[in-house]
Write a structure and sequence with these properties.
- Helices cover 30% and strands 23% of the residues.
- A seven-stranded parallel sheet has the order 10-11-9-12-13-8-14, sandwiched between helices. Strands 15-25-24-16-23-22 form a six-stranded parallel sheet, sandwiched between helices. A five-stranded antiparallel sheet has the order 2-1-4-3-5.
- The two termini are 49 Å apart.
- Bound molecules: adenosine-5'-diphosphate and zinc ion.
- Zinc ion binds next to loops.
Length: 721
Amino acid sequence: MNRIRLLVFNRALEVLDYRVPDGMQVDLGSIVVAPLGPRQITGIVWEPERLPGQEVAAEKLRPILEVLPVPPLSAPLRRLIEWTADYYCAAMSSVARMVISSGGALSGPTTMTEYRLSGGMPERMTPQREQAIEALQGEQATIRELAGIAGVSEGVLRGLVGQGVIEPVSVAIDRPFPPADPDFAVPELSADQREVADRLVQAVEAEEFAPFLLDGVTGSGKTETYFEPVAAAIRRGKQVLVLLPEIALTENFLNRFEQRFGTAPVQWHSSLKSTERRRAWRAISEGTAQVVVGARSALFLPYASLGLIIVDEAHEVSFKQDDGVRYNARDVSVMRARFEGFPVVLASATPALESLQMAESGIYEKLDLRSRFGGAQLPHIDTIDLTEEPPERQRWLAPRLVAALEDRLAKKEQSLLFLNRRGYAPLTLCRNCGFRFQCTNCSAWLVEHRLSQRLACHHCGHEETPPATCPECGEPDCLVACGPGVERIADEVRELFPEALIAVATSDTLNSPDKAAEFIAAAEHGAIDIIIGTQLVTKGFHFPELTLVGVVDADLGLEGGDLRAGERTYQQVSQAAGRAGRGAKPGEVLIQTRHVEAPVIAALAEGNRDAFYEAETEARRFVGAPPFGRWAAIIISSEDDAEARQAANRLGDIRPHVQDVAILGPAPAPLAMLRGRYRYRFLVNARRSANLQKVITEWIAAQDFPPGVRVGVDIDPYSFV
Ligand code: ADP
Ligand code: ZN
């Protein structure tokens, strides 16, 4: 091959032609370095016929400089990149960037330098040095990462390196991961589990595309069951990817994996250190990483020989990425399995309606686990009508729920209070003038966090210290909290039961693997009486002594007005309920609501999942929502309100009139301002027969947008803000 076409990591250029100098060996999928003006760029060698671009005359072609020493991207992976870009209306280079997500891994060196404290002390101590030395005990990472951990500048740390207080350590990138042993501790499966496991093992051995929906009630042992096909893949020398919705869940998973396979799997998530990232990326691309457990971004890595993907808690919203390439890792997993020819398992106790529909129409094979493992019973569920049994003023727990908590405390059993709202209160206002604290970058209220003494925006991360006086009227000590967050519920519980051991479990408190591990150990060993948590604690955890789950506000999810509100409420509440009574003692669930008659609440109370899904299916069919029709959102944004509005209006003026496609908008997005940008939104609803992506791509391409305007396309959106 002499003339080659590259996909380059630059959105503006994307496709460039080069020639291969004599004696250099280049394959399709090779990752190469090429000259671009005075600079160098990285690119992937692509089939020219699949990558449209202008052909450069032969005499003008410049030679590429080098082929990087990593395996070429396989043809199925290149097809996956193309498919993802097409389906989600994204740039191919942006998708490819998710594959090459560790720049460092591409280059040759097999060692990297990390730094750690040497034990020595500096000649002159400064407050910053002191802070660094205290924060870096037991840490080892790059200077940049250490600076982040210690909260000091890199300069401060380099000064300490100069004095020998911090010393360099050489880390080998290519040291192998310990092998997992498929026969380390094989469990005794129940008859149901055995049947499901056998079917999955058979599919792994067939090495063909086969999508499965593993529909198992909470506590049925889905993990134990899908570990069997994982073992089968390991035996065949195939790699396995297990996708989990949150990093906080990995800790629990790692423990169970190690018990079953004798060693931890390879991890992939955003908080890996850069040396860990490089090591994992290389091992994945060379095939020596057998089992990878990760967040959604692990899906696009260049596995050498993937043989199985498990998507655990497959219904979770966090599999959908909301910026950059707006893909859904659950759906792309199925495509990857199809392109590469292996089975994929979507596991859930409350599958998405879309997945159930796929099973019903015979596209996915459905496997069921209908009972809890070891004879544990599903919990008894009851509602508390807050209009009839209200809590006291400025209190959030109804008397019946308080009595139930008291009863569990007396019996030394555990309780979980679930409220999907971080912080102390969702809204803070001035008692004198009614001023409401709002984010300066977003059209959103600031949420009070008392533990960290901050007012925080949950959309952009903006934080401020609560002021001593009202910024509007100047009244001192005037702030009042409106409504509850988990921290406020914790206060209420502390007042009610001063002797109880309480833990607040949210992404604020369990923000590192260590803290998550600490929490799990405490909960398992009975060192916590009452857990107060967000959706983070409703998934994956197995606390045998937990017998009561209180859902503080089941109506919360129903208020957002988004398309999947009912489904999400159903899923969250059932997941929370699923934590109760997993051991020998029976569980009880109390759901606080103001809408006992709402179909989703009634279905929950009756434990009638089918009734809920039937009602939801009809509702979706009626409005042409997924899976019966398709939605897309288009967000036009700019730092300048008028510019954004005009761009949106002009786009509206040239909207296409296509059969089976309805375009609504533009209108100010529900979050009219986000991170300092003004946002206008179109919603597109299409029948399945229409080519939604083509319509949208051509429509947007027909207009030139000023440089300050961004156009975001979200296919199959989950967030409607
Ligand atoms: P799910 O994910 O379906 O809610 P889990 O996989 O967490 O359920 O299983 C629930 C509990 O039952 C876990 O503690 C698990 O270790 C245990 N368990 C499930 N199946 C088996 C089995 N075959 N042998 C031993 N323990 C099992
Ligand atoms: Zn904000």
